[in-house]
Amino acid sequence: xxxxxxxxxxxxxxxxxxxxxxxxxxxxxxxxxxxxxxxxxxxxxxxxxxxxxxxxxxxxxxxxxxxxxxxxxxxxxxxxxxxxxxxxxxxxxxxxxx
Amino acid sequence: xxxxxxxxxxxxxxxxxxxxxxxxxxxxxxxxxxxxxxxxxxxxxxxxxxxxxxxxxxxxxxxxxxxxxxxxxxxxxxxxxxxxxxxxxxxxxxxxxxxxxxxxxxxxxxxxxxxxxxxxxxxxxxxxxxxxxxxxxxxxxxxxxxxxxxxxxxxxxxxxxxxxxxxxxxxxxxxxxxxxxxxxxxxxxxxxxxxxxxxxxxxxxxxxxxxxxxxxxxxxxxxxxxxxxxxxxxxxxxxxxxxxxxxxxxxxxxxxxxxxxxxxxxxxxxxxxxxxxxxxxxxxxxxxxxxxxxxxxxxxxxxxxxxxxxxxxxxxxxxxxxxxxxxxxxxxxxxxxxxxxxxxxxxxxxxxxxxxxxxxxxxxxxxxxxxxxxxxxxxxxxxxxxxxxxxxxxxxxxxxxxxxxxxxxxxxxxxxxxxxxxxxxxxxxxxxxxxxxxxxxxxxxxxxxxxxxxxxxxxxxxxxxxxxxxxxxxxxxxxxxxxxxxxxxxxxxxx
Lengths: 98, 495
Prior knowledge:
CATH superfamily of one domain in chain A: Glu-tRNAGln amidotransferase C subunit, N-terminal domain
Radius of gyration of chain A: 23 Å
Strand content of chain B: 5-15%
Oligomer: heterodimer
Number of strands of chain A: 2
Low-confidence stretches of chain B: none
Distance between the termini of chain A: 45 Å
CATH topology of chain B: Amidase signature (AS) enzymes
Strand order of the largest sheet of chain B: 1-3-2-4-6-5-10-11-9-7-8
Largest sheet of chain B: 11 strands, mixed
Shape of chain B: globular
Order of helices and strands of chain B: HHEHEHEHEHEEHEHEHHHHEHHEEH
Shape of chain A: flat
CATH class of chain B: Alpha Beta
């Protein structure tokens, strides 16, 4: 049986996993809304699915292979145009090692 | 002449007969946009300069007697979640403001090759998450039939643009009904092809096992015309399938005698507007009169489709949207302490409320301890829903349902209650879970003059059969056809 509601602590934990920073109001709002949505989703537990295989993809073929050919890819110039945070061919990010 | 009122196939015909030029039609469409888009707000970006230049180039070739592509002059609006080289693609999100793709989606390449002219990019719910186009970070699109109502969503900009004659045709995307439901609310035709029929290379991902590019048009022939252009396998999309593409235009002819149509009983156990029910029943009578055989069928797991859909779609979304982190492209927060903080602030400032809600729900469903109970459970229920369809399609050729339980609802009516909003897709999302093709077309109007949609669901890769029924129905339901009158627009005085 799945639990029925989600706590604000859980919302905070999930937000961290999802790399989201929530305001106090958002935490309250999402706790309330997700609780009622998950409550509605409880409906699924009515079904016995013990012997049912899950569907991940509709298409049954799982892999499709292309010829191993050298083709043009995007130029560095085109990719550089996507970000103002590029210096000397590198993306600028904050220091990650102290 | 009101050239913007033409369908694409009418326009191509007139161009070929040299009765109109490509420039005339493109110019007229931009005049129309100028006249009404301040009210409708369907477009996020216009591609006027390039469109007019392309039109002139085609006209020049025609004048010189040179060959032009088969569909030269089709003016098309593109949902702003399909990438277009050189034209901004925002997904209706602040996080992609200013993003200009260095490549075209495969569908865009195919359309350009066929001679289509991109008019502009249309508004949507942010990252296609929504059913009303109210979740866009930029603007709220209005329903041309009643400006106080939503156009549906998430392809609301595309559907409203087609309905208001601001383009000849449009592309949308459909993950849970996002082509069909807005087509229904705006009184136009919307087709979601079979999963794997159309390449999704260059469609920015929301829920990869459900997303499909679809078409929104004024009539069924245009729908077939566009499907001929965009269908087919693509080496760039490993989920597109190498299955023969028929000439869909060949299906636009009569002959539905003895075609077997199933009516799923469970759809009528849900809450449904009386006027939608009546319009549906009237449509059945029309089809019966044309020789179709109608029978009641059962899709017993219908009631479980909504929770299964939202768990799967949101789980996939939480994973797909992890790429928006402020590093390589898109928005980056200006104020951060370290890398983790940069990710969090960028995403929190750049993404809207509904997107965050879905990422949270999806992350929760995939998180340790809940994966089995939610995500895996939903995938198993998805199997049951597919099986339901497999069973009924042994007995019938097509299924028929209303597209949405109600006509277009009011702006703001459902924004504070996400679950209520989700319920407006209850008739469309089982189709995505099963990967089937389905089309919505107008079948009548409510007393308030709002369009009502009829949904035709087909077997995998049998879009042709759907088009045949839709075409025949369209030809015989003409009595109902009403003309759009946008509030505050004098339709007589326009150019």
